[in-house]
Amino acid sequence: MKTEVLKDIKKAEEEYQSTISKAQEEKKQRHSQAELEADNLASEEARHQAALKHAEIIKSGNQRAAALRVKGEQNLSKAVQLLVLRFKEQLHVRA
Q1: Spatial separation of the C-alpha atoms in residues 77 and 20, rounded to whole Å
Q2: How far apart are CA 20 and CA 26, in angstroms?
Q3: Domain total of the chain
Q4: pLDDT tens across 20-78, in order?
Q5: In a domain, 87, yes or no
Q6: Over the range 22-53, which residues count as b (16 or more CB within 10 Å of their CB) and which as e?
Q7: Domain residues for 57?
Q8: CA-CA 20 to 30 A from 4: which of 22, 34, 82, 86?
């Protein structure tokens, strides 16, 4: 009778250890999966932030280019007049 009780206790301990091992392995797997999902979310957020920053930079660059274009167009007639004036001066110097 004592042997059977001891065998039952030993069997229960083995089952307990097996259950504990399985639970620990499942915990590790879930932890790994959670870390992977967190990394994916962080990567997605980083890509989203980068896309927003890229759009902001492009918008700013387009605005600056438009402003420079307007300023350049305003100065175009002055530049042509100055060029013609310098050309005429050169003609008169040589004549």
Answers
A1: 86
A2: 10
A3: 1
A4: 999 999 999 999 999 989 888 889 889 999 999 999 999 999 999 999 999 888 888 88
A5: no
A6: eeeeeeeeeeeeeeeeeeeeeeeeeeeeeeee
A7: 1-70
A8: 22
